[in-house]
Specification:
single chain, 19% strand, 5-stranded antiparallel sheet
Length: 351
């Protein structure tokens, strides 16, 4: 019989989606028989193995029934024990308790509709695909740009993010801070990151924050606001437009004087006011100039005002970026900001 025929016969006998369940059921039956026939060589706690594995690989429709099956096997083999003492009673209670926990997780997983490992892989893949939009596109040799992100919880999920795109000879970048911190803001940040990544390429620079504001107003979020700063940079002339939505101001380093200038720009927070306007601050980056865009986690702490934090950041930038801008974003993020807040930073340098 050919291999395709064997596969077809196997699929008729055991559907592909049920093979894992069949293996787990078979393993549970074998463990139950071993406990019954080889007692006390095989402990009752062996039934935890298929129970734990099922929580990782079975889907939400199969998992509850399998948990009930494991507990039924446990109920059948307990009377076969030579002596039902305190140790056996505690083991049974632990297995039933863990089964109850797995059942609860399966009910929550029903909302997602996939098994545990599959759900995690899907979420991680989604996160990676969306966050790739924050990658800086290839730039002409005279330009260097880098972004860095740190989460309050030390995880890849944060309420701060960067989206970037190169459109018709311009570098379009937005640094965004979603309300909340760490994983609490992570899901909202992922959704907003994907939406703003599309708007950044689709809308003219003057309309980007308007579109972002409209998108946030349409969301039914308990904490439905965000701050953002948008840079539109002409890679040929060095002319830039910076628009802010309730965000800390950008900072420009003039190569001639070696001094940093704070570029104050005004605009309301995204997601609060319909029809808000976001005026631009414009200028030109000359050779040797550098530009910093960042979130408030870089400059604000419970014990320090944001203005003092900006002064400290610029002092550190003067020290850490002197003569070498490559890798400067990483050095600044590591040296500044609160470890209890999300932090994002973008550094642009015209060589």
């Amino acid at each position: 019989m050919s291999s395709p025929s064997l596969n077809a016969a196997a699929n008729r006998l055991v559907p592909r989606g049920s093979r894992t369940l069949v293996l787990l059921v078979s393993a549970t039956v074998l463990i139950g028989l071993a406990i019954w026939l080889l007692d006390p060589s095989v402990p009752l706690v062996s039934l935890l193995v298929p129970l734990v594995l099922s929580s990782l690989v079975l889907g939400p429709r199969q998992l509850p029934w399998f948990v009930v099956f494991v507990l039924l096997v446990l109920a059948l083999v307990v009377p076969t024990q030579e002596e039902i003492d305190l140790r056996v009673a505690l083991t049974v209670a632990i297995i039933f308790g863990l089964g109850f926990v797995v059942l609860l997780s399966s009910f929550r997983r029903t909302r997602l509709g996939v098994a545990g490992i599959q759900g995690e892989m899907m979420f991680v893949d989604l996160r990676d695909r969306i966050l790739r939009q924050g990658g800086i596109p290839d730039l002409p040799a005279e330009w260097y740009a880098a972004s860095e992100l740190r989460s309050a919880g030390g995880t890849p999920f944060a309420g701060d993010f960067v989206v970037a795109s190169r459109v018709e000879g311009r570098l379009e970048v937005a640094v965004v801070d979603v309300s909340g911190k760490g994983q609490g803001a992570g899901t909202r940040a992922l959704l907003l990151c994907g939406a703003l990544g599309g708007l950044l390429s689709a809308l003219p620079p003057s309309e980007f924050l308007d579109g972002a504001n409209r998108f946030l107003l349409q969301q039914d979020w308990d904490e439905g606001f965000a701050t953002a700063i948008h840079l539109s940079l002409d890679l040929t002339t060095g002319h830039y437009d910076i628009r802010s939505a309730g965000h800390p101001p950008a900072a420009l380093r003039h190569a001639g004087s070696g001094r940093w200038e704070v570029l104050d720009s005004e605009g309301p927070i995204l997601g609060l006011i319909d029809g808000a306007s976001f005026p631009a601050v414009s200028g030109e980056m000359r050779r040797g100039d550098a530009l910093l865009l960042y979130t408030d986690g870089m400059v604000e702490t419970r014990n320090r005002d944001i203005a003092l934090g900006i002064d400290r950041m610029l002092g550190q930038a003067e020290r850490l970026l002197r003569g070498e801008f490559e890798g400067g974003a990483t050095r600044l993020v590591e040296a500044l900001g609160s470890r209890n807040d999300d932090r994002a930073l973008l550094l642009v340098h015209r060589r």
